[in-house]
Amino acid sequence: MAAQILDGRATARALREDLAERVAKLKEQGVTPGLGTVLVGSDPASESYVAGKHRDCAEVGINSIQVQLEEGISQDELLAELDTLNNDPACTGYIVQLPLPQHLDTQAILEAIDPNKDADGLHPMNLGRLVASTAGEMTTPLPCTPKGCVDLLGHYGIDLSGKHVVVIGRGVTIGRPIGLLLTRRNVNATVTLCHTGTKDTASHLRSADVVVAAAGVKHMIDPADLKPGVIVLDVGVTREVNPETGKAKIFGDIAPGIEDVASFYSPNPGGAGPMTRVELLANVVESAERSLA
User: Fold this and answer.
1) Which end of the chain, N or C, is less packed with Cβ atoms under 10 Å?
2) What's the half-sphere exposure (Cβ side, CA atoms, 13 Å) at 8?
Protein backbone atom coordinates (compact mmCIF):
# COMPACT_ATOMS: atom_id res chain seq x y z
CA MET A 1 0.00 0.00 0.00
CA ALA A 2 1.13 3.53 -0.73
CA ALA A 3 2.03 5.72 2.22
CA GLN A 4 -0.58 8.03 3.70
CA ILE A 5 0.39 11.68 3.27
CA LEU A 6 0.69 13.81 6.40
CA ASP A 7 -0.96 16.88 4.92
CA GLY A 8 0.49 19.95 6.63
CA ARG A 9 -1.71 22.35 4.68
CA ALA A 10 -4.97 20.70 5.72
CA THR A 11 -3.83 20.27 9.33
CA ALA A 12 -2.70 23.89 9.56
CA ARG A 13 -6.04 25.01 8.15
CA ALA A 14 -7.86 23.14 10.94
CA LEU A 15 -5.57 24.67 13.56
CA ARG A 16 -6.14 28.16 12.16
CA GLU A 17 -9.89 27.68 12.54
CA ASP A 18 -9.36 26.88 16.22
CA LEU A 19 -7.06 29.88 16.63
CA ALA A 20 -9.65 32.17 15.02
CA GLU A 21 -12.17 31.11 17.68
CA ARG A 22 -9.65 31.77 20.45
CA VAL A 23 -8.78 35.17 19.00
CA ALA A 24 -12.48 36.07 18.90
CA LYS A 25 -12.78 35.22 22.61
CA LEU A 26 -9.72 37.33 23.40
CA LYS A 27 -11.23 40.29 21.57
CA GLU A 28 -14.39 39.93 23.66
CA GLN A 29 -12.14 40.44 26.68
CA GLY A 30 -10.50 43.51 25.16
CA VAL A 31 -7.29 41.88 23.91
CA THR A 32 -6.28 41.64 20.25
CA PRO A 33 -3.12 39.58 19.61
CA GLY A 34 -0.51 41.27 17.45
CA LEU A 35 2.32 39.64 15.49
CA GLY A 36 5.35 41.77 14.68
CA THR A 37 7.88 40.96 11.98
CA VAL A 38 11.25 42.67 11.68
CA LEU A 39 12.71 42.41 8.19
CA VAL A 40 16.13 43.89 7.44
CA GLY A 41 16.89 44.41 3.76
CA SER A 42 14.96 43.20 0.74
CA ASP A 43 15.75 39.51 0.24
CA PRO A 44 12.92 38.19 -2.00
CA ALA A 45 12.60 34.87 -0.17
CA SER A 46 12.39 36.61 3.21
CA GLU A 47 9.89 39.16 1.90
CA SER A 48 7.69 36.37 0.55
CA TYR A 49 7.91 34.42 3.80
CA VAL A 50 6.99 37.46 5.91
CA ALA A 51 4.09 38.32 3.60
CA GLY A 52 2.72 34.81 4.07
CA LYS A 53 2.80 35.20 7.83
CA HIS A 54 0.77 38.37 7.66
CA ARG A 55 -1.79 36.76 5.36
CA ASP A 56 -2.17 34.08 8.03
CA CYS A 57 -2.66 36.81 10.65
CA ALA A 58 -5.50 38.35 8.65
CA GLU A 59 -7.18 34.96 8.36
CA VAL A 60 -7.39 34.40 12.12
CA GLY A 61 -7.89 38.02 13.21
CA ILE A 62 -4.41 38.80 14.55
CA ASN A 63 -3.08 42.32 14.03
CA SER A 64 0.02 42.71 11.85
CA ILE A 65 2.92 44.92 12.88
CA GLN A 66 5.42 45.09 10.03
CA VAL A 67 8.85 46.64 10.59
CA GLN A 68 10.85 46.98 7.35
CA LEU A 69 14.40 48.29 7.79
CA GLU A 70 17.26 49.25 5.51
CA GLU A 71 19.95 46.64 4.97
CA GLY A 72 22.65 48.98 6.28
CA ILE A 73 20.99 49.57 9.67
CA SER A 74 23.43 49.58 12.58
CA GLN A 75 23.37 47.12 15.45
CA ASP A 76 22.30 49.82 17.93
CA GLU A 77 19.54 51.05 15.64
CA LEU A 78 18.15 47.55 15.23
CA LEU A 79 18.29 46.93 18.97
CA ALA A 80 16.32 50.16 19.48
CA GLU A 81 13.63 48.84 17.11
CA LEU A 82 13.40 45.63 19.15
CA ASP A 83 13.16 47.62 22.35
CA THR A 84 10.16 49.45 20.89
CA LEU A 85 8.41 46.13 20.14
CA ASN A 86 9.34 44.75 23.57
CA ASN A 87 7.48 47.68 25.15
CA ASP A 88 4.56 47.87 22.72
CA PRO A 89 1.41 46.38 24.35
CA ALA A 90 -0.14 45.92 20.88
CA CYS A 91 2.63 43.42 20.04
CA THR A 92 2.09 40.12 21.83
CA GLY A 93 4.78 38.31 19.87
CA TYR A 94 7.31 39.01 17.13
CA ILE A 95 10.10 37.55 15.06
CA VAL A 96 13.29 38.83 13.51
CA GLN A 97 13.44 37.35 10.01
CA LEU A 98 16.69 35.52 9.31
CA PRO A 99 19.23 35.64 7.82
CA LEU A 100 20.39 39.07 8.90
CA PRO A 101 23.08 41.02 7.01
CA GLN A 102 26.59 39.90 7.95
CA HIS A 103 27.52 43.12 9.78
CA LEU A 104 24.88 42.39 12.44
CA ASP A 105 25.40 40.05 15.41
CA THR A 106 22.51 37.61 14.94
CA GLN A 107 22.81 35.97 18.37
CA ALA A 108 22.86 39.31 20.18
CA ILE A 109 19.82 40.45 18.22
CA LEU A 110 17.84 37.31 19.00
CA GLU A 111 18.73 37.51 22.69
CA ALA A 112 17.37 41.08 22.78
CA ILE A 113 13.84 39.80 22.10
CA ASP A 114 11.60 39.79 25.18
CA PRO A 115 11.32 36.02 25.94
CA ASN A 116 7.58 36.45 26.54
CA LYS A 117 7.21 37.85 22.99
CA ASP A 118 9.42 35.23 21.35
CA ALA A 119 7.06 34.06 18.58
CA ASP A 120 9.65 31.66 17.15
CA GLY A 121 10.22 29.95 20.51
CA LEU A 122 13.98 30.02 19.99
CA HIS A 123 15.12 32.55 22.60
CA PRO A 124 17.86 30.95 24.76
CA MET A 125 15.73 31.45 27.88
CA ASN A 126 12.76 29.63 26.37
CA LEU A 127 14.94 26.83 25.02
CA GLY A 128 16.49 26.55 28.48
CA ARG A 129 13.06 26.20 30.05
CA LEU A 130 12.28 23.44 27.55
CA VAL A 131 15.51 21.67 28.51
CA ALA A 132 14.54 21.86 32.18
CA SER A 133 10.99 20.55 31.65
CA THR A 134 10.30 16.86 31.12
CA ALA A 135 6.62 16.81 32.04
CA GLY A 136 3.58 19.00 32.59
CA GLU A 137 2.22 21.95 30.65
CA MET A 138 4.69 24.36 29.07
CA THR A 139 3.88 28.02 29.76
CA THR A 140 6.55 29.52 27.49
CA PRO A 141 6.75 29.69 23.67
CA LEU A 142 7.86 26.47 21.97
CA PRO A 143 10.00 26.25 18.80
CA CYS A 144 7.60 26.38 15.86
CA THR A 145 8.87 23.71 13.47
CA PRO A 146 9.44 20.99 16.11
CA LYS A 147 6.04 21.72 17.68
CA GLY A 148 4.50 21.65 14.21
CA CYS A 149 5.98 18.22 13.54
CA VAL A 150 4.62 16.82 16.82
CA ASP A 151 1.18 18.35 16.24
CA LEU A 152 1.08 17.06 12.65
CA LEU A 153 1.68 13.50 13.84
CA GLY A 154 -0.86 13.96 16.63
CA HIS A 155 -3.48 15.19 14.17
CA TYR A 156 -3.23 11.83 12.38
CA GLY A 157 -3.45 9.88 15.64
CA ILE A 158 0.15 8.66 15.54
CA ASP A 159 1.35 7.69 19.01
CA LEU A 160 5.11 8.15 19.41
CA SER A 161 5.40 6.60 22.87
CA GLY A 162 8.25 4.07 22.80
CA LYS A 163 9.03 4.79 19.15
CA HIS A 164 12.64 5.19 18.00
CA VAL A 165 12.93 8.55 16.25
CA VAL A 166 16.05 9.32 14.21
CA VAL A 167 16.63 13.03 13.59
CA ILE A 168 19.02 14.03 10.80
CA GLY A 169 20.54 17.48 11.35
CA ARG A 170 21.53 19.40 14.47
CA GLY A 171 20.42 22.93 13.58
CA VAL A 172 18.94 25.09 16.33
CA THR A 173 15.70 25.62 14.41
CA ILE A 174 14.73 21.94 14.19
CA GLY A 175 17.36 19.29 14.83
CA ARG A 176 18.42 20.17 18.36
CA PRO A 177 15.11 21.27 19.93
CA ILE A 178 12.87 18.58 18.44
CA GLY A 179 14.54 15.95 20.60
CA LEU A 180 13.59 17.98 23.67
CA LEU A 181 9.92 17.87 22.69
CA LEU A 182 9.92 14.24 21.62
CA THR A 183 11.46 13.00 24.87
CA ARG A 184 9.03 14.83 27.18
CA ARG A 185 6.77 12.41 29.02
CA ASN A 186 3.64 13.38 27.08
CA VAL A 187 5.33 12.18 23.86
CA ASN A 188 7.77 9.65 25.35
CA ALA A 189 9.80 8.79 22.25
CA THR A 190 13.43 7.67 22.17
CA VAL A 191 15.58 9.95 20.01
CA THR A 192 18.84 9.48 18.12
CA LEU A 193 20.35 12.67 16.66
CA CYS A 194 22.57 12.15 13.60
CA HIS A 195 24.79 14.80 12.02
CA THR A 196 27.91 15.16 9.89
CA GLY A 197 30.03 13.56 12.63
CA THR A 198 27.84 10.46 12.91
CA LYS A 199 29.39 7.22 11.72
CA ASP A 200 27.22 4.87 9.67
CA THR A 201 24.09 7.01 9.60
CA ALA A 202 22.48 4.41 7.36
CA SER A 203 22.44 1.86 10.20
CA HIS A 204 20.57 4.31 12.43
CA LEU A 205 18.08 5.00 9.66
CA ARG A 206 17.42 1.29 9.15
CA SER A 207 16.41 0.93 12.81
CA ALA A 208 14.17 4.01 12.92
CA ASP A 209 10.42 3.85 13.48
CA VAL A 210 10.25 7.56 12.64
CA VAL A 211 12.67 9.72 10.65
CA VAL A 212 12.81 13.52 10.89
CA ALA A 213 14.99 14.70 8.01
CA ALA A 214 16.17 18.22 8.80
CA ALA A 215 19.61 18.56 7.23
CA GLY A 216 18.68 20.81 4.33
CA VAL A 217 20.53 18.64 1.79
CA LYS A 218 18.56 17.77 -1.34
CA HIS A 219 17.54 14.08 -1.51
CA MET A 220 20.28 13.00 0.90
CA ILE A 221 18.24 10.11 2.32
CA ASP A 222 17.59 7.13 0.06
CA PRO A 223 14.26 5.42 0.84
CA ALA A 224 16.07 2.10 0.34
CA ASP A 225 17.90 2.81 3.62
CA LEU A 226 14.62 2.89 5.58
CA LYS A 227 12.65 -0.03 6.92
CA PRO A 228 9.19 -0.74 5.52
CA GLY A 229 6.40 1.05 7.39
CA VAL A 230 8.61 3.87 8.66
CA ILE A 231 7.02 7.26 9.40
CA VAL A 232 8.90 10.10 7.66
CA LEU A 233 8.83 13.84 8.18
CA ASP A 234 10.72 15.59 5.36
CA VAL A 235 11.59 18.92 6.95
CA GLY A 236 14.88 20.08 5.40
CA VAL A 237 14.64 22.64 2.62
CA THR A 238 16.84 23.16 -0.42
CA ARG A 239 15.92 25.98 -2.82
CA GLU A 240 17.17 25.83 -6.38
CA VAL A 241 16.64 28.79 -8.69
CA ASN A 242 16.00 28.17 -12.37
CA PRO A 243 18.45 30.54 -14.11
CA GLU A 244 16.11 30.91 -17.08
CA THR A 245 12.91 31.77 -15.20
CA GLY A 246 14.37 33.10 -11.96
CA LYS A 247 11.84 31.01 -10.05
CA ALA A 248 12.89 28.87 -7.10
CA LYS A 249 11.85 25.26 -6.55
CA ILE A 250 11.89 23.59 -3.16
CA PHE A 251 13.32 20.12 -2.55
CA GLY A 252 13.34 18.07 0.64
CA ASP A 253 15.94 15.77 2.16
CA ILE A 254 14.15 12.56 1.11
CA ALA A 255 14.81 11.17 -2.36
CA PRO A 256 11.89 10.07 -4.58
CA GLY A 257 10.30 6.72 -3.86
CA ILE A 258 9.40 7.23 -0.20
CA GLU A 259 5.71 6.56 -1.00
CA ASP A 260 6.55 2.91 -1.59
CA VAL A 261 8.39 2.44 1.72
CA ALA A 262 6.76 4.57 4.41
CA SER A 263 3.41 4.08 6.16
CA PHE A 264 3.09 7.87 6.63
CA TYR A 265 5.15 10.72 5.26
CA SER A 266 5.01 14.49 5.10
CA PRO A 267 5.81 15.96 1.67
CA ASN A 268 8.11 18.90 1.11
CA PRO A 269 6.69 21.38 0.35
CA GLY A 270 3.28 20.97 1.97
CA GLY A 271 4.20 19.23 5.21
CA ALA A 272 6.20 20.93 7.95
CA GLY A 273 6.21 24.38 6.31
CA PRO A 274 2.50 25.19 6.80
CA MET A 275 2.69 23.76 10.33
CA THR A 276 5.59 26.05 11.20
CA ARG A 277 3.57 29.08 10.15
CA VAL A 278 0.50 28.11 12.16
CA GLU A 279 2.60 27.37 15.27
CA LEU A 280 3.97 30.91 15.01
CA LEU A 281 0.39 32.20 15.23
CA ALA A 282 -0.30 29.84 18.12
CA ASN A 283 2.63 31.26 20.10
CA VAL A 284 1.27 34.78 19.59
CA VAL A 285 -2.25 33.79 20.65
CA GLU A 286 -0.98 31.87 23.68
CA SER A 287 1.10 34.87 24.74
CA ALA A 288 -2.04 37.02 24.62
CA GLU A 289 -3.98 34.42 26.61
CA ARG A 290 -1.26 34.32 29.27
CA SER A 291 -1.49 38.11 29.63
CA LEU A 292 -5.03 37.66 30.95
CA ALA A 293 -4.14 34.92 33.43
Assistant:
1) C
2) 24
